[in-house]
Amino acid sequence: MADGNFPRIHHSWAQDNLLPVIVMLLGAGLLVRFAHWFGARRRTWIDTQIRHQIESGSLASESLKRSRAVSEAVEWAAVALTYFVVAILSLDRLGIPLTTLVAPATVIGIGLGFGAQQMVGDLLAGFFLFAERQFAFGDFIRLSVPGQTTGITGTVEELTLRVTKVRTAQGELVVVPNSALRQVTNLSKDWSKAVIDIPVSVVEDLERVTSLLKDVVATMATDPQWKDLLLGDPVVAGVETIDVGYVQLRLIARTLPGRQFEVAREIRLRAATALRSAGVASPSIGDPAP
Questions:
Q1: Which of 40, 61, 96 is the last residue of a domain?
Q2: Where does a domain end: 49, 65, 96?
Q3: Which range of residues forms the domain containing residue 250?
């Protein structure tokens, strides 16, 4: 009789315990897929808004950039929380006391402790990056990390609690764990500065060259295409360095965040054109003075 009741008892246990666990796992899978789908849709919308702002010539909203980073962090946390809750509920439904897992978990925890330390360090560093708003999606930054002497410079493409992804000017996507960030220089925060050094032969009339350069920056400051990128008129600071055969005159322009490079290129182009038209020859750097 006992043998005859075993299949019935087994079927009843599976129906009362195993089936709900399977349903919870399927539900968790659907919830995770929805979280990924919703997060992707949210980020696509934010990226579109940022792109429209940049194409219109204005700055990308800081709130939008922060919203994108927060969206990724919330998605990651929601997925992790879903898996954790489902695991606890499944163990409870299967009748496995959590206290019986303490000893095995301790052994496993010791074994994985060193690896987990790195993960926890990344998460804590990521939390402070979000809390302190050091940089956000779309910012142009320079990172100092162990093993790099020159640092990593590029645009933030993704920022999560664990890693920061930066796209360099060469198109390389650099993934850096947040705990490895030693120093972050935000090159597109609030405002930027374009610094341009123009080499001029020592035989040239420096006052005349300075006057030409002042005309160049004054014209650029009133150009409708460029004046909206400038925070004030560019200035000719004067002689910056003196070397064998040439001196360098420095020009400085305060610009909108992240726009210093294009402004600097335009100033160089205009300065080179104006000096060439005025008969001011560029020196051969390193050649001795005549």
A1: 96
A2: 96
A3: 192-277
Among residues 211, 197, 273, which one has the least CA distance to residue 239? 197
Backbone torsions φ then ψ of 289, nearest 5 degrees: -70, 145
pTM of the model: 0.57
Burial call 135-166: b when 16+ CB within 10 Å, e when fewer: bbbbbbbebebeeeeeebebbbebbbbbebbb
* Burial class for 125, CB neighbours closer than 10 Å (0-12, 13-18, 19+): middle
Q: pLDDT band at 284, cuts 50/70/90?
A: low
Q: What CATH number did the domain enclosing 196 receive?
A: 3.30.70.100
pLDDT digits (tens, 9 = 90+) for 19-62: 787 888 888 889 888 888 888 888 788 777 777 766 665 556 66
Residue 249 and residue 236: Cα distance in Å, rounded?
7
Distance CA 140, CA 260 (A): 11
pLDDT at residue 213, as a whole number: 93
What mean pLDDT, rounded, does the chain reach? 80
Tell me how far apart the alpha carbons of residues 203 and 280 are, in angstroms, rounded to a whole number. 10
CB 123 within 8 A of CB 138: no
For residue 275, the tally of other CB atoms under 10 A from its CB is: 19
Q: DSSP letter at 61?
A: P
Any residues with CB less than 8 A from the CB of 250 and at least 6 apart, and which?
Answer: 195, 196, 197, 198, 236, 237, 238, 239, 240
Q: What is the pLDDT of residues 185-208, one digit of tens each?
A: 888 777 888 999 999 988 888 999
